[in-house]
Amino acid sequence: MKTPRREYPNRLEPFFENLVFDRDDNTMVINFGPQHPSAHGQLRLILELDGEQIVKAVPDIGYLHRGMEKMAENMIYNEFLPTTDRMDYIAATSNNYGFALAVEKLLGIEAPRRAQIIRTMLLELNRIISHLFWLATHALDVGAMSIFLYCFREREFAMDLMEDYCGARLTHSAVRIGGVPLDLPDGWIEKLAHYINKLPKDIEDYEGLLDQNRIWKMRLEDVGVIPPEMAETWGCSGPTLRGSGIPWDIRKEEPYELYDELDFDVPVTDSCDSYGRYKLYMQEMRESIKILKQLIPMYKESDPQIMAHAPQYISAPKEDIMTQNYSLMQHFVLVTQGMRPPVGEVYVATESPKGELGFYINSQGGPYPYRLKVRAPSFWHTSILQELLVGHYIADVVTIIGNLNIVFGEIDR
Amino acid sequence: MMRRYQEKGDVQKKAYYNDRFWVAPQIPKDPVESDEIFAKDLESLKSKFEIKEAYIQRGQMVVYIDPKDNRDVLKHLKEELAYNFLSELSAIDWLAQKGEFEIFYQMLSTSKRKRMRVKCFIKEKEAIESVCDIYKSADWAEREMYDMFGVIVNNHPYMKRILMPDDWQGHPLRKDYPLHGDEFAQWYEVDKIFGKEYRDIIGPENRDSAYVNERDTKHFARIRHEVRFGEEPSKEPTDLMKEYQEEGGVFLIKKFKKDKSITLKERK
Amino acid sequence: MAQHQVRYLQDGGLPVLLTTADKILQWGRSNSLWALTYGLACCAIEMMASGASRYDFDRFGTIFRASPRQADLMIVAGTLTKKHAEFIRRLYDQMAEPKWVISMGSCANTGGMFNTYATVQGVDRVIPVDIYLPGCAPRPETLQYAVMMLQKQIRRESAFQKLKPKRLV
Ligand code: SF4
Questions:
Q1: Which residue ranges does chain B devote to CATH 3.30.460.80?
Q2: CATH number, domain at A238?
Q3: Is residue A158 part of a domain?
Q4: What is the block-wise mean pLDDT of chain B (268 residues), using blocks of 10 residues?
Q5: Is residue A1 situated within a structural domain?
Q6: Ligand 1 within 6 A of C76 CB?
Q7: Cis before B82? omega within 30
Q8: Taking Cα atoms as reference points, which of A221, A241, A211 lies closest to residue A229?
């Protein structure tokens, strides 16, 4: 065959991999992604179709692999913290927190009470942000454009709160190892109270738009059914697991931070399908609001200390650094050389909005972690696609992908 | 002067200063007997398999086993001891020190609310048995382990790279793989899209984050010194980027007037 | 970021005299820039936010299209990895002329904080870029600013000049 004339200097030949007809068994192979508007990132799926039904699905990931675990091995602990923002970039603080908690466990220190309260506030706010974003994009994929606009309106409010606190909209880095960098700014609590007072009504609005909506129900009910055994063996966690009737929420079962003092319920549904999970997400937002409401009085009563006192690992507060010689020296050493945690390993799991976010850190006593592994919930939720999609229609693919709430930053890391 | 010899087995960043008398403290390892549930589990494991070492660290049990037993141990854990989740699986590279990989399986039991870690060591060229028919979640984790470390997993249904492209060379998370990639990695996209002969035209990657080229006006001018396309970089501050529109405005397009805009007192 | 020098005289980068027809055509083009949703990572979320209710991208005539064949503007929002590099080139080639590229975020500009083996150190190693938008992640306002700058640039260009060879095309 003559090679086609190339106007451009690139060697990429046109490829027709997108659509392959196989005459023998009447199946068709479709390539979905990696740049697909409703793939929630860079998911590539190779689907084998019989008519409209999927007989085989091969997910292909790694299009956003940025080498974060390798970076961690070449960075001091504090340097790595901003990188964790970029994992689950929809709820960045929950990543920061997961990492900070793991390092704190490694060091054997604990954040002071006010820091814990602020962290819990930020975590729950992030859960709301993430769930609103999930609803927005999921609805957009399924075809409900107006929900997208409504949800983003509410989400912007929460983003403004985050921005008021830490100065960034998306990549917060709002948690430090050993505490939080700042106290809440003036007036923040009032804004938060205003927000959580009006949010329940908005959630009701969404439910009013979607709950009985015929199209929404038709596209979600009995689609993407994950039976409990399947959820267990594929390592699901978070809402995806609770949507299959297994009441496992790390906040409740292995409480970290303040969660054992707070009163909240863990919504569980055993309908196992996408619609059940949608109801679950809505309920979880309400629980988050409940938690935030309890935190406001707790905050007002707490002492103003926000960083743990552990001079070996954590810099002193800014006033001390500015006034005391020893604190300044120690700060200088910690910034240039990094803290040196004890030798050993920890695995700490936290409940991020997507599920169980775990950090495994192996320290050999040096300033850099010897090995850091991130157990990202979406990674395991994506692997389930190969079994879940089989038997569904092609139109259900976007529903299922959207419903699993996957984020590519944390799948590929 | 001779350049100091550097170990090639581990090219990761090293601390540039080490206190001569500093001894790293250890995280305490508690005996397994201190926790009832773990003690029972360990009892049950010990009766069937060879356990090399077991202790509790930061509330989680760590058990070292023989790599040949890995399937049986996990099966036992799942079926007898109710560890129903395999939450993580990966490897650690100890090639430079011992010529071995350390493989860990992070287990979770929701009924007992306990987490434990099963570990084993394998030699560099050795393979390990797949556990993905016991826990399906191991499927991708094992592929990732192969991709990142080159640990070969036997009897895996689809042993291929998962995160890196299929034609990638090298295993990135090994300690002898540099952070910025080897030569193949650095030219990967150029070779693939344009071909090797374009390497000279496109030039090497710039890995220096502080790099500034004053004459490269197409890219980054200094802030507030922006110039029009193709002009010489200016020494004086310019106000080019202040105006969104040309002087005189654009046909049919409203211009933003600052004095006419209102600011809301309170957010709705 | 690729290290190369642009030869402005040969590459037709100098300002040209505009005729009235030019003006009308470019006015139309600049006000209906349809963007290809090229969301790759975190910046994509900000790109979506700028399309959503508060920031409302439609005011600029910018509507997101999912197909490269209907788009004039490619907003590369996020980290381009080596595995993905091939596809961005393919999609760029599929876009109809005239086309423009905004590289959004430090990752797309220079590789950003990901100075690793897996990240392309700037999309301009693969496709030509018209506007670089710094930030990690850039706010929606900055993306709108970038689009406005691009519109201004388009209005200054001649519509009928022979397609200006950009580097790498
Ligand atoms: S520039 Fe920052 S926010 Fe944007 S994709 Fe890169 S890491 Fe994410």
A1: 26-154
A2: 1.10.645.10
A3: yes
A4: 72 81 86 84 84 86 87 85 86 86 89 88 86 86 88 86 87 87 86 82 79 63 65 70 68 76 78
A5: no
A6: no
A7: no
A8: A241
Tell whether the model's pLDDT for residue C4 goes beyond 50.
Answer: no
> A383, A406, A99: which is closest to A231 by C-alpha?
A383
Q: Which residue from B182, B216, B244 is facing C148, i.e. has the nearest CB? A: B244
C83 contacts on A by Cβ (under 8 Å): 62-63, 65
Query: What is the pLDDT of chain A when averaged over all its residues?
Result: 85
Task: Kindly indicate the confidence band of residue C29, based on its pLDDT and cuts at 50, 70 and 90.
Answer: confident
List all residues 6 or more positions away from A231 whose beta carbon is below 8 Å from its beta carbon.
A240, A241, A244, A246
State the smallest CA–CA distance between residue C157 and chain B in angstroms.
11
Partners of residue C6 in chain B, C-beta under 8 Å: 216-218, 230
Among partner residues C38, C46, C113, which is closest to A35 by beta-carbon distance?
Answer: C38
C12, two tokens: 């037709």
* A36 CA → ligand 1 middle, Å: 19
* Buried b / exposed e along A5-38 (16+ C-beta atoms within 10 A): eeeeebbeeeeeeeeeeeeeeebbbbbbbbbbbb
A10 contacts B193 by C-beta, under 8 angstroms: yes
Residue A36 to residues A40, A74, A391, B166, C34, Cα–Cα distance (Å): 8, 33, 22, 21, 17
Q: What is the pLDDT of residues A199-244, one digit of tens each?
A: 888 888 888 888 888 888 888 888 888 888 888 888 888 888 888 8
Would the CB atoms of B189 and C86 count as touching at under 8 Å?
A: yes
User: Helix axis angle, A145-166 relative to C42-51, nearest 10°?
Assistant: 120
Range B26-154: architecture per CATH: 2-Layer Sandwich (3.30)
Would you tell me which residues 8-47 of chain C have a C-beta closer than 8 angstroms to some C-beta of chain A? Answer: 37-42, 44-46
**Residue A17 belongs to a domain:** no
| Atom 6 (ligand 1) nearest CA | C107
The count of domains in chain A is: 1
- Best mutation site among C47, C76, C79, C115 for ligand 1, i.e. most ligand atoms within 8 A of its Cβ? C79
CB contact under 8 A, B115 and A347: yes
Which region holds residue B113: left if phi is over 0, alpha if psi is between -120 and 50, else beta?
A: left
Instruction: Give me the residues of chain A with pLDDT under 50, please.
Output: 1-6
C residues 95-114 closer than 8 Å to A (CB): 113-114
Per DSSP bridges, beta strands B152-154 and A53-60 are unpaired
Which other chains touch chain C, taking contact as 3+ CB pairs less than 8 Å apart?
A, B
Range of the domain at A184: 68-412
Smallest Cβ distance to C81: which of A65, A82, A171?
A65
